[in-house]
Amino acid sequence: MNRDKLLIVEDDENLGQILKEYLELKGFATHLARDGEEGLSEFNKQDFNLCILDIMMPKKDGFTLAREIKLLDRQVPIIFLTAKSMKEDTIEGFKIGADDYVTKPFSMEELLLRITAVLRRSGGMKLEKKTSYEFGKFIFHYDQQLLEFDKQKQKLTSKESELLRLLCQNMNQTLDRSAALKMIWKDDSYFNARSMDVYIAKLRKHLKKDQNIQILTIHGEGFKLVSLT
Prior knowledge:
Blueprint: E1 5-9, H1 13-25, E2 29-33, H2 36-45, E3 50-54, H3 62-72, E4 78-82, H4 87-96, E5 100-103, H5 108-122, E6 132-135, E7 138-141, E8 146-149, E9 152-155, H6 158-169, E10 175-176, H7 177-184, H8 190-207, E11 213-218, E12 222-227
Parallel strand pairs: 1-2, 1-3, 3-4, 4-5
Antiparallel strand pairs: 6-7, 7-8, 8-9, 10-12, 11-12
């Protein structure tokens, strides 16, 4: 039996329950979240092979949720559900990294075919989310909030750990400043942006032990963790 694990984020309770029950009958393991915030929380707790996201939702819309999910895992496939058929929405979804797009109303059979096709392209089962990252001479244990260098361990704060995890997840790629702020601080206000700068400075201090590891500031965009070796 297919046991690919799906995250469904849909604020319409009836549709969400119908989707969950139908896909479970088809052999998928499914988890249903009722809004974007709950969806992100569940994605952080569990490993999923594919996410099905409604776009128009309270607390956090589907586009925002997708950007935050892609910060944590660039490879996880995403299918958007929307009541709109506007071309601009479709373009926005694919820019974020959507794998497919289904406009309501749709048949369950159509959605199943699209899910199956996306999973086939993505290779099906994924590895579990990483809790340790190696870069340069460092080992970062996210689950323990520890940064290890030459067998010496530095305890990190929760904010330092969350920020370093996002940088590691996006190694050698620009971490969008606004998206990271919304992920960790919940909004991208000026005050929180200054707070992020303080934590970036703290991480740079920790990482200066290895001259080949740097956090670069990409002006107007964000930050990039790079290895010069």
